[in-house]
Structure to design on (376 residues):
């Protein structure tokens, strides 16, 4: 796969390096193992609803990668949910993940198909009924019941194509479909 | 529902205000509409894989709430995925959301049941095969194929109870089950 750091002519559309994208796709076609990525994070509980997330490495293109910087994120709850508002809460992070993925997917896949995009803005709203989390009702789910998304896009791309490209988003897949999660617990 | 800001005796377990929790539950039992929350975020595309998330308000307990501060998050891709590493990437934000939610759920529900917890640390790893996102293979999903989680917990709580409480997490529900997402597009 292409590595950054050397000088050459590249084709940029929507800020996406199409030269590198095309090289990546060709490399994966000849060695599909290059496409297998493992993303990682760590979490440390602080107090009540406050905890810290650390993200600093992943595996992909047959090798370990360290990020240039280790990203630290704070999560907390607002006072009405017994927290101190030191960061977004967990379900707000779901909206952040979905929004980042839909946006990047649209920018990348529009570029790959030659559509110029000038701006992308989007808004998210999701419904949670706390009777689920508080175990007050078995028939109310604990997570989002629905998520509504509105996109405003400026650029030379048809509306139907925008809808089609947004469906390619990996986090859209995660949220609208099931992902198996295995949990191991070590008691210290 | 209880509001912060006045002085009184409260029962704190694991940093969780059990007095307020109990008052919230009683309030919701008498008016279930108090439990209906709407969480929100906004996203603005910057360039390539870089975009910015803003989180600053939500609806719940029959009223609008503004956070004390507006949270801004950066999302980007690493260079090998055509980005400039200006923030975690979208699928890493999914792990952040899941980790924050499992941790808070364990702290809150252990507190509600009287279990003392001294520390919680956890690690996350999820598999993505980029052949899905790159539309190179129809039989490879675009999002996570699997997520593996390991918890290390110190405290006076049985291992089976930890497993049971983690299942209550709203983001665990979002990731392991389906959430309907509706997308509206406005072309400018």
């Amino acid at each position: 796969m292409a590595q950054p750091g050397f000088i050459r002519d590249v084709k940029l559309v929507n800020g996406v390096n199409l030269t590198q994208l095309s090289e990546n796709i060709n490399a994966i076609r000849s060695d599909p193992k290059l496409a297998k990525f493992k993303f990682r994070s760590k979490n440390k509980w602080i107090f009540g609803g406050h905890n810290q997330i650390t993200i600093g490495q992943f595996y992909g293109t047959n090798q370990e990668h360290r990020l240039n910087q280790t990203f630290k994120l704070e999560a907390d709850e607002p006072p009405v949910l017994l927290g101190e508002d030191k960061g977004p809460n967990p379900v707000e992070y779901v909206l952040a993940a979905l929004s980042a993925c839909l946006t990047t997917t649209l920018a990348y896949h529009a570029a790959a198909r030659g559509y110029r995009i000038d701006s992308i803005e989007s808004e998210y709203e999701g419904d949670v009924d706390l009777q689920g989390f508080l175990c007050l009702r078995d028939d109310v789910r604990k997570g989002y019941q629905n998520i509504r998304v509105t996109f405003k896009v400026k650029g030379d791309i048809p509306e139907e194509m925008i809808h089609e490209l947004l469906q390619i988003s990996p986090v859209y897949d995660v949220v609208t479909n099931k992902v198996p999660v295995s949990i191991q617990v070590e008691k210290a």
Remarks:
- The helical segments of chain A are 18-30, 90-112, 130-133, 159-166, 170-176.
- The first helix of chain A runs from residue 18 to 30.
- The mean pLDDT of chain A is 95.
